[in-house]
Amino acid sequence: MALHIIDEANRCLNCKKPMCQQGCPVHTPIPTVIQLFKENRLLEAGDMLFRNNPMSAVCSIVYNHEMQCAGHCIRGRKDMPAHFSSIENYISEMFLDRMEVTRPEKKDKKVAVIGCGPAGMTVAITLAQQGYPVTVFEWKGKIGGLLQYGIPEFRLPKSIRYHFPQRDTSATTPQSKKHQNLWHNLWHKNKRTPEILAISGVLVESGGLEPSTFRV
Question: Which residue from 47, 72, 175, 180 puts its CA 20 to 30 A from 17's CA?
């Protein structure tokens, strides 16, 4: 473990009213996670992060922390703020490698998630944790959406992106299928396959089909 991560954890003031948590878009329980980290209860800290935000390993790298958790840190008013992102990244990557996936009680309703970008992956994982059989439909060759095709390697290492496909073999994780015509088939009765008819709910998280570029 890098010493600077321990140093950052020790710099946390453990505020009674954690402004960092209020500044976080998903309200990560930052002081609690840091305390668990300092007590060497890493798996508990990782589980807390993952249940609050399955994309914590990604968010710890690509989010604008200066405007969110670090930007709201009380210590930052007179000194450098505590950088929770480095702690979050260490815990999240460790947890994705060591987590034990349990099988919840299976529900009788099936769900389809169209689009396997960050939003689609988050919803699919959350529903699977609650016991819903989830099938993710992705029209490109790999899951990830923006994480796979929009963020360059130097900004988001592929080693993090590959944590999620590796978990597809588990009985509790969403299935991923390539299907370019699913949306068309959903709305045409004569093209609805038995697989589609078995779906109780559909969530569309298609994102942007093509990236936009600056014409400079």
Answer: 47
Structural domains in the chain? 3-98 (1.10.1060.10), 110-204 (3.50.50.60)
Buried b (16+ CB within 10 A) or exposed e, 96-114: beeeeeeeeeeeeeebbbb
Residue entry with tokens 């992705």: 138
pTM: 0.76
In 12-138, which residue ranges form alpha helices assigned H by DSSP?
Answer: 19-23, 30-38, 42-52, 56-62, 69-72, 84-98, 118-129
Q: What is the spatial distance between Cα 150 and Cα 60, in angstroms, rounded to a whole number?
A: 17
CA atoms within 13 A on the CB side of 84: 37
Dihedral sign, CA of 65, 66, 68, 72? positive
Would you give the DSSP letter of residue 63?
A: S
Of 186 and 68, the structure prediction assigns the larger pLDDT to 68
Helix (H, G, I), strand (E, B) or coil at 55: coil
pLDDT tens for each residue of 14-61: 999 999 999 999 999 999 999 999 999 999 999 999 999 999 999 999
